[in-house]
Amino acid sequence: MGETMQGSLVGSISEGVYLEIDPTWLAHHGDYPLSPMGEKLRFVFIDLEDGIEESSAVNYADFEIVGRAESYKSFIGAGNREFPLTFKFRVQGTDFDDPETAIAFEVMQPALWLDSLKAPWTGRDGLSHAPPPCVLALGELFFGRVVATDVQISWQSPFEPDTFLPHGADVTCTFTVVREHIKNYRVTCVDAFQKRHVITASPDKFPNLYLLQDIGGIQISGKKGTSGV
Fold this sequence. Notes:
Elements: H1 2-9, E1 10-12, E2 17-21, H2 23-28, E3 40-42, E4 45-47, E5 58-63, E6 72-78, E7 82-90, H3 99-116, E8 121-122, E9 128-129, E10 134-138, E11 142-159, E12 166-177, E13 185-190, E14 196-201, H4 209-216
Antiparallel strand pairs: 1-4, 2-3, 2-10, 5-6, 7-12, 8-9, 10-11, 11-12, 13-14
């Protein structure tokens, strides 16, 4: 019974569970500096005892009305889906001649690869660009485009006495689901007289997409050659 339950909670992962930098984005950003890990991180084992969490908030704007006890709530939009995942890397060392090489390949590189997903990078043009979007695959539960909105590393003991290199790392990540393309932009404004005004425009007709981003607080999907995600 114990072996059967353990096998259902912890097991090897199929080809359908992985995290990779969006191949479409990479095709448009050929100068992105890939680490020795490459563009994909496959899940080797997963612990399902605590489940897989996801969340999505709803955004309402509050309007105070004179003579009314409670405020009027106007629907703004739904928040992006979020998946918090924790990756645990430990030294195995079976395929390496020395501990430092095993630490580098099995702990440091995958942990720093995940951390790089939240960091801007400098292209050949000398400009700073947004972090890369990724594709997250969790079997048939979820498959979609995400960005890493939070990455935290906790280096785990034991540590090498001379170099202080850790034998383990726990990396807690939050992945936020984003769209690949936005066909139309729609912003609803409420003026001082409580009248609604709707602005709808396609990307090719709106004179300044990033002005819309500032007005509406939304994420603009970048075109080829830009730093947007």
